[in-house]
């Protein structure tokens, strides 16, 4: 009799898992995002830096947020990002790719989907970077491992599949080089805008989310 009860419990669990549709999963992710907005403004903390770290203030048409960078882990990536910041490269760009429950990507296109020339690509420091957890900022790239230039994205959920997998070139990963420490609610709001197709590009916000400016607000000595 006990064996029959155990079998019934196992079958019930399997049936409940099988009933989980993509729609259910999206609803669950949305609930998690809403809860995160209500409960905190900063991304989850990972290994803390040993000393002061540079921070940048990102002002957008939907609000502003502050990102703490990690040159102690990813010096090449942070130096590259700050070089674009210092020259005002990001000012007037948009978040051109927004996928709720995944990430918001920007820093490459203006509102007319035009791109400016960038510096040469940099080495991928994913093996040394942070995990791609909700609120971390990471460099976008093509299928080539060392192809990141100026575009970045901010994770709006824990995207473990973007992390570096040692010994696997196909899963080399995306380098996360900082995290949002103020204004994570703004990031979540951006993630929920209506998107569509614009030219060759998908997941483009129907109303442009403009990056008005990115400026330093603190730096390590």
TrEMBL record:
It holds the Pfam family Pro_isomerase. This is Peptidyl-prolyl cis-trans isomerase. Belongs to the cyclophilin-type PPIase family. It is an enzyme of class 5 (isomerase). The lineage of its organism: Bacteria, Pseudomonadati, Thermodesulfobacteriota, Desulfobacteria, Desulfobacterales. SUPFAM superfamilies: Cyclophilin-like (SSF50891). Residues 60-216 form the PPIase cyclophilin-type domain. Its EC number is 5.2.1.8. It comes from Desulfatibacillum alkenivorans DSM 16219. Gene3D superfamilies: Cyclophilin-like. PROSITE patterns: CSA_PPIASE_2 (PS50072), PROKAR_LIPOPROTEIN (PS51257). It comes from the Bacteria. GO terms for molecular function: peptidyl-prolyl cis-trans isomerase activity. PPIases accelerate the folding of proteins. It catalyzes the cis-trans isomerization of proline imidic peptide bonds in oligopeptides. It catalyses: [protein]-peptidylproline (omega=180) = [protein]-peptidylproline (omega=0). Keywords: Isomerase, Rotamase, Signal. Residues 1-18 form the signal peptide.
């Amino acid at each position: 009799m006990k064996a029959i009860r155990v079998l019934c419990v196992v079958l019930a669990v399997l049936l409940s898992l099988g009933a989980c549709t993509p729609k259910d999963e999206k609803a669950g992710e949305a609930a998690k995002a809403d809860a995160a907005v209500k409960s905190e403004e900063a991304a989850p903390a990972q290994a803390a830096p040993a000393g002061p770290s540079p921070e940048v203030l990102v002002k957008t048409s939907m609000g502003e947020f502050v990102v703490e960078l990690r040159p102690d882990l990813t010096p090449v990536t942070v130096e590259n990002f700050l070089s674009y910041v210092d020259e005002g490269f990001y000012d007037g760009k948009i978040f051109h790719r927004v996928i709720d429950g995944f990430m918001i990507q920007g820093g490459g296109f203006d509102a007319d989907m035009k791109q400016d020339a960038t510096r040469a690509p940099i080495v991928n420091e994913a093996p040394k970077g942070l995990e791609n957890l909700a609120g971390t900022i990471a460099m976008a790239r093509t299928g080539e491992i060392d192809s990141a230039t100026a575009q970045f994205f901010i994770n709006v959920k824990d995207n473990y599949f973007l992390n570096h997998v040692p010994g696997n070139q196909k899963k080399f990963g995306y380098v996360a080089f900082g995290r949002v420490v103020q204004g994570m609610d703004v990031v979540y709001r951006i993630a929920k805008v209506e998107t569509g197709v614009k030219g060759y590009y998908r997941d483009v916000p129907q109303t442009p989310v403009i990056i008005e400016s990115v400026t330093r607000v603190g730096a390590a000595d």
